[in-house]
Amino acid sequence: MKALEGIKILDFTHVQSGPTCTQLLAWLGADVIKVERPGIGDITRGQLVDIPDVDSLYFTMLNSNKRSITLD
């Protein structure tokens, strides 16, 4: 059992420091749900893109181990 297992976190953060903090919570067992803008998503999806037509490594690195939803 992890320290934060059973805890749900709504993640409204974007870019660097916020997603890093919520990722740490996810690593500790929290169920992190990333909330993104409809149609656009998190701006980091398109930053530092290495491979065309996929999410950037930057976005993937900051948001791994999280679920994601859009909310209008």
From TrEMBL:
It holds the Pfam family CoA_transf_3. One of its GO terms (molecular function) is CoA-transferase activity. InterPro entries: CoA-transferase_III_domain, CoA-Trfase_fam_III, CoA-Trfase_III_dom_1_sf. Gene3D superfamilies: Crotonobetainyl-coa:carnitine coa-transferase, domain 1. Keywords: Transferase. Transmembrane segments: none annotated. This is Formyl-CoA transferase. It comes from marine metagenome. The lineage of its organism: unclassified sequences, metagenomes, ecological metagenomes.
